[in-house]
Design brief:
With 335 residues, the chain is mainly alpha-helical. The protein has three domains: 64 residues, Endolytic murein transglycosylase (Dna Ligase, domain 1), CATH 3.30.1490; 77 residues, no CATH class; 144 residues, no CATH class. It is 46% helix and 9% strand. The strands form three sheets. A two-stranded antiparallel ribbon has the order 1-2. A hairpin with a 5-residue loop joins strand 5 and strand 6. Helix 8 crosses helix 11. The protein is elongated, with a radius of gyration of 30 Å. About 6% of the residues have low confidence.
Length: 335
């Protein structure tokens, strides 16, 4: 039987060499992909005080290396010291590769995306739900550092990559320090009337950030609010009311904002109180800050959603009422 198969394969290879090679390559590729898909890594923690022998024995116990002595020899050849941290060790890696990871401190990392426009409470919820970090999102009693006094507007939304096991408070502090860097880049720029401080800039930027996700539209939205401030008109910004109603969470969680809500008594309610609210209502990105520092040159005083993710702007209240009626019609059609 084996001879018959061998003869058949030779005949097939002679007539269809290219096809047979193609099939073999596909089969090899499938098995290779399957191997990568099923390969798992093991999280190994090197604690302070752990010796190379301790780590070697742990690696051996987890079937990550075949020989303790080979691993120790590899570490010795690279300087003899390994670094504390958590490591994602892929199965099948050589003792030399693993030793290099530990000597170089190539620790496992956690990627954290903090979106623009989130409140501090929302960011803390995000960090609390992020696996691979440690500790609480709030400072323990007695801790007296700058991160313990942060409020909305103090955090810079960005993508952060930190070592696995990093305390959540440390991530908040990293984002706080990043905002300080951003502030240093912007703070000396000329501020449009009637803004007088960085606090004013970030406060207005937070409203702009919550009003529109479109960077191209932010300078126009900023111009509306600046025009209203100059004319001593109330800002009448819905996001400021949401901030009050949700006790700083900034998310109505599916509930509609009703006319009655606009009467709530709070200095953050820009329907009741003139001027800027006492502070930012969210954490802002560069686009919102730029929009406030360099607003569009308009006479707009009003805007309303256009049904396509943007807004319609107007100079007069009459035009605004028409745009508002158009928006209500669009909402009714979408129901």
């Amino acid at each position: 039987m084996a001879k018959v198969f061998k003869k058949f394969f030779k005949r097939l290879l002679k007539k269809h060499t290219g096809f047979v090679i193609f099939v073999l390559l596909v089969v090899i590729g499938v098995f290779t992909l399957f191997g990568y898909a099923t390969r798992k890594s093991v999280l190994v923690t090197v604690s302070p005080g752990a010796t190379v022998a301790d780590v070697a024995n742990a690696l051996k116990k987890n079937d990550l290396i075949d020989s303790v002595s080979s691993f120790k020899l590899a570490v010795r050849g690279m300087g003899g010291r390994i670094q504390v941290g958590q490591y994602d060790i892929p199965r099948g890696a050589s003792a030399w590769r693993i030793a290099k990871m530990l000597v170089n401190g190539d620790v496992a990392t956690v990627k954290i995306l903090i979106p623009e426009g989130l409140t501090l409470k929302q960011i803390k919820i995000l960090l609390a739900d992020t696996d691979g970090l440690t500790g609480d999102v709030d400072c323990p009693a007695g801790m007296m550092t700058a991160v313990c006094d942060i409020t909305d507007g103090d955090i810079f939304p960005d993508t952060y990559r930190v070592a696995r096991g990093t305390p959540r408070i440390a991530v908040l502090d990293l984002a706080r320090r990043k905002m300080n860097q951003v502030r240093a880049n912007f703070e000396n720029r000329k501020m449009p009337r009637p803004l007088q401080s960085w606090h004013d800039v970030v406060t207005l930027a937070s409203i702009v950030q919550r009003e529109t996700p479109r960077a191209s539209e932010m300078p126009i939205v900023a111009s509306v609010y600046l025009n209203r401030l100059r004319q001593n008109m109330r800002l009448q910004a819905d996001p400021t009311v949401v901030y009050v109603l949700t006790d700083g969470l900034g998310d109505m969680q599916g509930e509609a904002l009703l006319t009655g809500h606009l009467k709530i008594d709070s200095p953050y309610n820009t329907y009741r109180y003139a001027g800027l609210p006492p502070g930012p209502i969210a954490n802002v990105g560069r686009d919102a800050i730029r929009a406030v520092l360099k607003p569009a040159d308009t006479n707009y005083l009003f805007f309303v959603a256009d049904g396509n993710g943007g807004h319609k702007f107007s100079n007069t209240y009459e035009e605004h009422l028409k745009n508002h009626a158009d928006w209500r019609e669009i909402k009714n059609l979408k129901k």
